Amino acid sequence: MQPRAQLMVNTPEIELWPGGLLRARANRDARILARAQWVLRRKRDGQYLAAELPEGLVALVPALAREPGIDDALDALARHGPRPRMGPAGTLPLSGLEARLEALGLDVDGYAERTGLALVAEPLQLQLAGFDRFRRPLWLDPGAARAWRQLQHAARRDGVLLESISGYRSHDYQLGIFERKLGRGQAIDGILAVNAAPGFSEHHSGRALDIGTPGEPPAEETFEGTGAFEWLCDNAGAGAFVLSYPRDNPHGIAYEPWHWRFDG
After folding, report:
1. CA–centroid distance for 85 within its chain
2. pLDDT tens-digit profile of 112-125?
3. 109-112 long-range CB contacts below 8 Å, 24 or more apart?
């Protein structure tokens, strides 16, 4: 019998993580997380908000009831119960994202027209696809998760080790990257030369991941010179993975030999 896949349930402001995957940040949290069936995690900063134990919900922050998005998260928790199964495919609404981007000084319509990129919605559910180089859980769209594991196994049979560097990223995560770079004085145009604008990244879909190989720095152009990259160029298409941003791509995004998208 196949083990049941571990799922992350997505809501606009809060993620529901299955128990056993998150590291405790305090002794009290460690005791609670060790017994948790679900952990409610704020997307904006990763703060643990509450844990669902066999005997019920335990708050990990004061004023949990006033937490933005908590009603949506609790509704999702009630629907999924302690042993979730993958539900129908779907995505979260994009409402509110454009206003947040414009508040950062980003012309959404102009950016979309200039790059040919579209806003990318986040999936309602993601599947655990293993762990990345840094031992963080790797979340992907279910189809992409299966395809990634198959790609890794095929590469290993040929003596090539592929590592994931990162997979799914929320809008809030990408907004945080953008805000930190703006805070360090970087210009918007300079940031957009190396990062897709928040909301436009393929990582939001759970169908893209950054790939590396042992001994190589993550997300560097030097990956192009590795046997792993050569193997991907020859074999990734058979697993329905494509290189999203080759040199001189029409989106104006810097060459990323490490960034591949599941297109199956």
Report:
1. 20
2. 999 999 999 999 99
3. 111/192, 111/197, 111/200, 112/200
Provide the CATH topology of domain 97-262. Muramoyl-pentapeptide Carboxypeptidase; domain 2 (3.30.1380)
Q: For 78-107, what is the mean pLDDT? A: 85
| Residues 124 and 9 sit within 8 Å (Cβ to Cβ) | yes
Q: What is the DSSP string of 132-173?
A: -TTS-EEEE-HHHHHHHHHHHHHHHHTT---EEEE----HHH
**Beta carbons within 8 Å of 154's beta carbon, 6+ residues apart:** 235, 238, 239
Within the chain, all domains assigned CATH 3.30.1380.10 are found at: 97-262
- C-alpha angle 122-126-131 in degrees, rounded to nearest 5: 120
Largest distance between two CA atoms of the chain: 56
